[in-house]
Amino acid sequence: GVSSFTTSPDGEAMQLPLAVDDREVETTDKVTFCGLADGSFEVFDLGTKLPVFHSASTRPSSISGLQSIAYSPQHNLVATGSGKGVIHIFDTRSLNSPIVSFTRNSASIEDLAFVTLERGTTVGLAIGTEDGLPYVAEVRPEGPSVRSELIGTDCDAIRRIRVLSGTGDVWTAGDDGVVRRYTGSML
């Protein structure tokens, strides 16, 4: 479950209640996820501006900071990617432990984005990697599988990956300075 905190991430006491800026629009039911250097992540309620969950950090022998994080509210999923290539996928209704963890190699996970596959029946995760070998993994309870290789780079790191809602097109940007589009029908 989600637990409330009364101290800020740096350990200082928080002043309650926090003032709401008049320019804010509809933040009462919104959250944001922040990846941390110890391999953990924190969830903040944007309406209250308070942390509502802090995950456990990774095992000391494999500590690696989180490089990327993606949230899919419609699928109740959050995915994290580490500097050592480890991806964890969590069900947001029970964030205490991942529902699946996997790694393809030790290349840093630079960016993640959820993508809907097969006319909305399957969830995928588009993964941008430092080794320049981006791919789409199908998210399944029994374990992920590589759904599509996003070819075209010459081993240049893929720093950003986005999915265009509606079409499902995946867009990547990398160190070679080229922006590439992969159509949703190819996935």
What does it look like?
- This protein has 187 residues and is an all-beta fold.
- Helix content is 0%, strand content 42%.
- It has no helices and 14 strands.
- It has strands at 31-35, 41-45, 50-54, 66-72, 77-82, 86-91, 100-103, 109-117, 122-129, 135-138, 145-149, 158-163, 170-174, 179-182.
- Strands 4-5-6-7 form a 4-stranded antiparallel sheet, with no helix packed on it. A 4-stranded antiparallel sheet has the order 8-9-10-11, with no helix packed on it. Strands 1-2-3 form a 3-stranded antiparallel sheet, with no helix packed on it.
- A hairpin with a 4-residue loop joins strand 13 and strand 14.
- The chain is globular and about 50 Å long.
- Residues 1-11 have low confidence and may be disordered.
The ordered H/E elements are: EEEEEEEEEEEEEE
Arrangement of strands in the largest sheet: 4-5-6-7
Task: Write down the Rg.
Answer: 17 Å
Structural class determined from secondary elements: mainly beta
Helix content: under 10%
| Outline type | globular
**SS summary, helix count:** 0
Q: Low-confidence segments, ≥5 residues, pLDDT <50?
A: 1-11
The end-to-end span amounts to 34 Å
Strand percentage: 35-45%
